[in-house]
Amino acid sequence: MPKRVHEKHKAHTVYKNAAGVRLPGVTTITAMLGWGQRTLINWANRMGLQGIDTTKFVDDKAAIGTLAHLLITDKLQGIDTDTKDYSASQIEEAYESVDNFNHWISERDFKPVLIEAELVSELYQYGGRIDIYGSDNGKFGIIDLKTGSGVYPEMIVQVGGGYANLLRENGYLVEFVRILNIPRSKTEGFIDKLISPETCRYALQALIHCREIYNLQKLIK
């Protein structure tokens, strides 16, 4: 089995349009929403009152999420994941996520077509990386992997708006859009969020507006 080059500290992906101009990624654009800022501030305040270093906590959880993502997408590609830079506890929690995903997919007839595919929208001028695209019981669509405490509206804009449009614009049939929140521990819940076509249309409109705000922010700066 081939071994993946370690990606824990991989450089940020660079997207370019047909003219070679650098483009923002979907997550950079959706950051313009700012919908979760108040919740994040309140959470950080609570953590601080408990004496918890939020920077270390977030870094640790991010590492677990990154590894879980790699383990899942690598397995779908027949790649052996390099885990040498992760701690034993991070590896254990990441495999908790993998076990949840394996249980979910074992009950389906899923066939992957694209894994971690990097695509560009020439129409709206942005790029993005699709976690998983394939057929599920004969229908084609996206499975986006999340690890955390839930599925939030900005994620729906990212996946249902940004990623779904990337696939369609590049000639892929999108019949379903799904976000899977796979828990890293027993204190987190498994969420299988199927996004409706109507919500995807709203999400794309939100993404388009965010793209314009991103341009305006650059001009104002």
Count of helices? 6
Which percent range fits the helix content? 40-55%
| Binned strand content | 15-25%
Characterize the main sheet: 5 strands, mixed
The CATH topology turns out to be: Lambda Exonuclease, Chain A
Helix-strand makeup class = alpha+beta
Shape: globular
Q: Tell me the series of helices and strands, N- to C-terminal.
A: EEHHHHEEEHEEH
Would you tell me the overall average pLDDT?
A: 86
Q: Unreliable runs, pLDDT <50, ≥5 residues?
A: 40-44
How many whole angstroms does the radius of gyration measure?
18 Å
CATH structural architecture: Alpha-Beta Complex
The total beta strand count reads 7
Strand order of the largest sheet: 3-4-5-6-7
CATH class: Alpha Beta
Question: What is this structure's SSE topology?
Answer:
Blueprint: E1 15-16, E2 22-23, H1 26-30, H2 37-49, H3 54-77, H4 88-106, E3 110-121, E4 126-136, E5 139-146, H5 153-169, E6 176-181, E7 191-195, H6 197-220
Parallel strand pairs: 5-6
Antiparallel strand pairs: 1-2, 3-4, 4-5, 6-7
Helix pairs in contact: 3-4, 5-6
